[in-house]
Structures
1.
Amino acid sequence: MAANISQSEADFTCPVCCDIFKDPVLLLCGHSFCKHCLQEWWRQSRLQACPVCKEIFPMAQPPRNLALRNLSDSMRLQRSKRETSGSQGLCKLHSEKLKLFCQDDQQLICVICRDAQKHKKHNCVPINEAAEEHKTNLKVGLMHLKSKLGSFKTQKLNCDKMASHIKLQAQRTEKTIKEEFQKLYQFLRAEEAARIDAVRKEATHKSEAINIRTSESECRDLLAHR
């Protein structure tokens, strides 16, 4: 029974705080989170992305998951009652208190289950001992996750610096290209003006030479007729 309760609580656990949902909200990807947990995650990551699947959402205020909230409140109330009563739960087969944890099957059992054929050769330890071992494993796992998170943040910072450097480099290159082409345009315009001026001067000189020859020819004709 206790194993069933643990599984039920897992279904109503926020992936961020690892506790039963409080005021849950729903993202379009289908994942739910405590409202405060999601807002804090977004604030720290500076991205409105799902903490589970990393999909990005533009919504500032995700809708509340009222059905999940009601179920989570009920689950929290049940857990509070169990903690208040101090009950460890009873074995559904033998109605004995669940005092042991079978490490082979990963489930809570009673002393009669331990001596039964199913668990007789299994490694069974007291619940408190198993809980401490799991807590240690969780702490170690959390330390690894924090280390990976720190490494990820460092890599992200380096990537951001590299992206800024690439952007600045591209801007400088673009400015250099524009300046070089501007110089080329000025040179071409000056060359164009010089060549046009030379052509016009040559045309003027040729026109003047033709006019002079024409005038000399006319003068010779007049003298010849006299």
2.
Amino acid sequence: MAVGLGPISTLHLVPGFELGIASAGIKRPGRKDVVVMRCAEGSTVAGVFTTNAFCAAPVLLCKQRFLGPVRYLVTNTGNANAGTGEPGLANASAVCAKLAELAGVDESQVLPYSTGVIGEPLPVAKIEAALPAALAALGPDNWAEAAAGIMTTDTLPKGASRQFVHDGVTVTVTGISKGAGMIKPNMATMLGYIATDAKVAQGVLQDLLRDAANKSFNRITIDGDTSTNDSCTLVATGQAALPEITQASGALFSALKQAVIEVSMELAQAIVRDGEGATKFVTVQVNGGGTHQECLDVGYAVAHSPLIKTALFASDPNWGRILAAVGYAGVPNLDVSRIDVFLDEVCIASRGCRAASYTEDQGARVMAQEEITIRIELGRGDCSETIWTTDLSHEYVKINAEYRT
């Protein structure tokens, strides 16, 4: 039911970055559910992670290791290895140790990632048995297959790629992500991997990823649930014949930043478009806020409201539900008489009440579309924020009711 999401477009190869996929049969025999990624020696790595207090064992290990030399990333689907305590940490470490042994590197140079059902022991033996095949399959052109390999309830793989030329040298940024439910990222998406062949100092790379995530992955929501496993990793292999980027300035940095943000934005919006049971892709744009935070508070209040989301599914222009959500968003001293609300370019409420020009037919016409923008003008200042979300359908309930069966 993905909204406006088709096959992955061309994913350019990133020199110094390889991907290999294999089957461990964690949830289904024959399913390719283990992905290994290899970074060129000397690569720098940045990461942003969930702020959920019950973060998964692989997240804990990634946080400890990503600042040091990293050579391999290993991902399994079908099991989140979250809510598993010390045994979960031991299991994640065991997978890393086995991959390190097979690849001839130190265990600390392996970052683990998991996604799937929470609270079940990681099937270490199955994953370890699949690692030799994943290593044997390593290649620079396996981005699309890897995008499929990291999926859980996703209906389509998600990838994006950009290239630019600096001083006659082509620089590439390519990424993949997965996610369709339990989506309200906080510092990352469900799982995301982006690589570039630019050479970037780790501190600059970290700030770049954090900024990109805040403009993309941290501006999407499907159901308001922050996952235990959210992780997004940016790798700079340094294979492009260009000077190292050591500060956040200059033409090369600006071009790289734009490419990373564009890739992140495309991946983040693809997650929303593939939201579990989604039939609508909804942009919530909040303008005229006194602070960015109050714009986000209003945007998320609208995006998370079950009443608004079900009205969107029904194509019902029940604009009173939008006003109610704006009103309970917690903005201090909110003057409702200054607020205007639009569906696309149709003004449905002006100065806190129904717009004199508004007709039900106008609202129904917009709500019948697959892509809708809800624009809220607060009239308090110059700040703006945009959030992307979905409707809430019967299919969402069905998918999540049957998730473990």
